[in-house]
Write a structure and sequence with these properties.
Layout lengths: L1 H27 L9 H22 L3 H7 L2 E26 L2 E28 L2 H9 L3 E2 L7 E2 L10 H4 L3 E7 L2 E2 L9 E4 L3
Parallel strand pairs: 4-5
Antiparallel strand pairs: 1-2, 2-5, 2-7, 3-7, 5-6
């Protein structure tokens, strides 16, 4: 029994290391966007942010009113999550204030769990008050749940947003390919300024 347990443990470690090395190798490959100039990367990110907001409005028409009222809108169009027992996620985003690009940011996070694979999602944060936006912009690194609470919007079947959520200082939306995601936590994600 001890010999079987030891063999199983070695096999599990070998498989885990093999999968992890494949995942990390995939993360280090160079894509065409890696060769793009900073201006081209910003333009690509801005286009992706516009597409994300359009998708948000389609899933919840009421969200457009919130975006229009927001003091600042931070859009991460592509947050890639990859995991095999230990997970990590990373993405780049743009902050818009009064409809103008105001800065670029990165989001990073981690998780531990028994899931494997990779997926992509989009995240939109709305700063509904001047105070919430000012505190965010004054920080050099801002962790959701520690530095501020983000109320992830509960969206009904007809696309309506829970009225209590809409009154919070910071409102968040998370989308995947299927549309708006419900019951998602964004706590623990760290957002930092980017030199993009």
């Amino acid at each position: 029994m001890n010999k079987i347990s030891s063999t199983w443990r070695r096999t599990t470690v070998a498989v885990t290391l093999g999968v992890a090395s494949v995942m990390f190798a995939g993360c280090t490959t160079t894509s065409p966007s890696d060769k793009a100039t900073p201006a081209e990367k910003r333009q690509e990110l801005n286009s992706a942010a516009n597409a994300t907001l359009t998708k948000l409005y389609e899933g919840s028409p009421q969200s457009r009113q919130l975006v229009e009222r927001a003091r600042g809108v931070l859009v991460f169009p592509d947050v890639l999550s990859a995991s095999f027992i230990v997970g990590a996620e990373h993405g780049a985003g743009v902050l818009r204030v009064n409809g103008q690009d105001s800065g670029y940011y990165t989001v990073t996070g981690g998780s531990i769990g028994f899931q494997a694979g990779a997926q992509s999602k989009a995240m939109v944060l709305l700063f509904m008050t001047d105070d919430a936006l000012a505190k965010f912009r004054a920080s050099s690194g801002w962790t959701i749940g520690a530095d501020a609470t983000v109320a992830v919007a509960n969206v009904g079947a007809n696309g309506s947003i829970d009225s209590n959520t809409a009154k919070q200082p910071i409102v968040g939306f998370v989308l995947n390919n299927a549309g708006l995601m419900a019951g998602v936590s964004v706590d623990g994600n760290k957002i930092s300024p980017s030199t993009l």
